[in-house]
Write a structure and sequence with these properties.
Structural class: alpha/beta
Radius of gyration: 13 Å
Shape: globular
Order of helices and strands: EHHEHHEH
Number of helices: 5
Oligomer: single chain
Length: about 100
């Protein structure tokens, strides 16, 4: 089963802040164990907000492995600039997650 999040319908023009991103993050977390795939459609709107993407995807990368993310999340209709930004954020947060698990407290 698949769950679809349309960013334009869900957020409207509120695609800048961490609070805006948290709305989407909370939807994803709510559906995580209920569906096979979560498809996020950006409608080719340019977001260009580190805060928005980090709150959604960066936080997920701190909670889940790269394999879990790629299996569960599909991102559609995202602009090339945003795709690069999104990938950078995920890589950075995955490194942070790996560092925390390797470092004794």
């Amino acid at each position: 089963m698949e769950y679809m999040i349309n960013i334009i319908e869900t957020c409207g023009k509120n695609i800048v802040t961490r609070d805006d991103g948290k709305v989407v993050h909370d939807l994803i977390i709510d559906q995580w164990n209920k569906v096979d795939t979560i498809r996020i459609d950006f409608g080719n709107v340019l977001v260009a907000s580190v805060s928005f993407f980090d709150e959604i995807f960066g936080q997920l990368a701190l909670e889940y492995s790269r394999g879990e993310l790629t299996k569960k999340i599909d991102v559609d209709n995202i602009q090339e600039f945003d795709r690069a930004l999104l990938n950078d954020i995920i890589r950075s947060r995955l490194r942070q997650r790996e560092y925390k698990t390797e470092t004794p407290h």
